[in-house]
Amino acid sequence: MRFEKGLFNLDTANFSQNLDKLIAAYPTFGENFLSTILNADPHWSADSTASYVHGFIMAYKPVYDSAAVVFKDFSKYEDEIIQAVKYVKYYFPNFKDRSKIITYIGPLDGYGDILSDDAFIIGLHHHLGKNFSLYKSALVQETYPDYISNRFTPGYIVVNCMKNVMNDLYPEKMDDKPLVQQMVEKGKRLYVLSKLLPKTEEYMLIGYTKEQLKAVYEHEQAVWALFVQNNFLQTIDANIIKNYIGESPKTQELGEASPGNIGSFAGWQIVKKYMQKNPKTTLQQLMDADDETIFANARYKP
């Protein structure tokens, strides 16, 4: 369902009424688009909301025009999502399937891909190619610097969808856990992601460049030594943990060219080792397994 086509092609005569019809045609997404994605105030009059949306359409016409070229035919990405969902249903039979895929365009510094109760919602404005000129603007860079916007390509659509599925199936609860448990938890998700997307290259699953992942594998011993020699594995210091888990431009100790999120990479290797030793473990059993037990059992040592 191409919401952005309906929005950007609204007839300006009786714009407010036409907008109401469009929103009504998308029962759950429409209102959320206005209030959550565009931040329109629900207390505004219909005319004020219409004027605000019209302003957004005028400002974002170049983004829509670019998306109309890149995503003239969305069937390739639809097929990828459908195939990935088949894997999800195979490994996690209790997953509540979504019946719709909705594409939209929103603010460049705002939301991207979303999983709602009934739809995969794809923010095309975050998939126009890493060299899309507006990604370099100060407004976007403040929220999505280069090391994040470099992943704003069409190829990340299905990856983001499956990451959202994982977060839906297993909401993350990382508070107060030692670093090694958080590393293993991230590693479990990356391992499952690789099974849901078996044809997707590893570097995309973790969000590195191809060159970065190659270099990290070449220096896997140094990566592990960083955690062991500094006695970081059992730390619960949030300031230390954030240096190694989650989005960041680099890992300070490993040099300027290194990627961030290095703890997730190490956790992924721990989980791979665990699964090699326990090949009959299902993905559900893996996700339910205790993180510290996985670490102890894997005996990971690159």
Can you put this structure into words, describing what you see?
The chain is mainly alpha-helical. It contains 17 helices and 3 strands. The chain has a 3-stranded mixed β-sheet with strand order 1-3-2. The longest helix is centred in the middle third of the chain and has 18 residues, at about 180-195. It is elongated, with a radius of gyration of 21 Å. The termini are far apart.
Secondary-structure element order, as H and E?
Answer: HHHHHHEEEHHHHHHHHHHH
Distance separating the two termini: 47 Å
Mean pLDDT: 95
For the report, how would you describe the main beta sheet? 3 strands, mixed
Oligomer: single chain
The count of β-strands is 3
The class by helix and strand makeup works out as mainly alpha
Topology:
Elements: H1 3-8, H2 15-24, H3 29-37, H4 46-59, H5 61-70, H6 75-91, E1 100-104, E2 114-115, E3 119-123, H7 138-143, H8 146-149, H9 157-169, H10 179-196, H11 202-206, H12 210-218, H13 220-229, H14 238-241, H15 262-277, H16 283-288, H17 291-298
Parallel strand pairs: 1-3
Antiparallel strand pairs: 2-3
Salient structural properties:
about 300 residues, mainly alpha
Question: Quick summary of this structure?
Answer:
The protein has 302 residues and is mainly α. It has 17 helices and three strands.
